[in-house]
Design brief:
Layout (H helix, E strand, L loop, with lengths): L4 E8 L4 E6 L2 E6 L11 E5 L2 E6 L1 H23 L3
Antiparallel strand pairs: 1-2, 1-4, 2-3, 4-5
Length: 81
């Protein structure tokens, strides 16, 4: 299974690179497949490449769902009912 995640661009670098933030984790990615990406944009990230831009509202909804799933998994793993 492959997973692509929405991430927020926090810095556009030299060439086709950017720094993105996902829940406090920052990572350098490639923007080679997209044009006109700006700081603050959300992109779909897959294996180090930004595949497409994403509407900020949709990105926030998706990130909230991932956070909710993570919290539920953590609760289930701790034995707390």
């Amino acid at each position: 299974m492959c997973l692509a995640l929405p991430v927020r661009v926090v810095e556009v670098g030299a060439g086709d690179t950017a720094i993105v933030d996902l829940g406090g984790v920052r990572k350098e990615i490639s923007l080679a497949l997209l044009a006109d990406v700006q700081v603050g944009d959300y992109v779909i990230l897959h294996v180090g490449y930004a595949l497409s831009k994403l509407d900020p509202e949709e990105a926030e909804k998706t990130l909230a769902l991932f956070a909710e799933m993570n919290a539920e998994a953590a609760t289930a793993g701790s034995g707390v009912a």
